[in-house]
């Protein structure tokens, strides 16, 4: 399974990469939205774990750009949004894309990894 983790907090990024690789996934990482968009357009991922608030753009901006490659159903299947700021507006917008939203810090890392690995 190929996973892209888009996260600008390096500790979280490195931890997720290590944990997912331990579970057998192949993991690419990006700290910026612009770099992530390039990676999404040029490579194939089974799952994209995307932080909502990046330093350059938002996770929703990345999803919009990803429409060049994926249809709306594929976006809902591929993207999981992670955020420390989940408001009703954010959840509503994520739902409009069909995306799962996980709050940070994760309540249970094993459950979060299962979502990222499409096990649940």
Automatic annotation (TrEMBL):
Residues 2-119 form the Response regulatory domain. The modification 4-aspartylphosphate is found at residue 51. It holds the Pfam family Response_reg. Gene3D superfamilies: 3.40.50.2300. Keywords: Phosphoprotein. PANTHER family: RESPONSE REGULATORY DOMAIN-CONTAINING PROTEIN (PTHR44591:SF3), STRESS RESPONSE REGULATOR PROTEIN 1 (PTHR44591). GO terms for biological process: phosphorelay signal transduction system. It comes from Halobacteriovorax marinus (strain ATCC BAA-682 / DSM 15412 / SJ) (Bacteriovorax marinus). This is Two-component response regulator. It comes from the Bacteria.
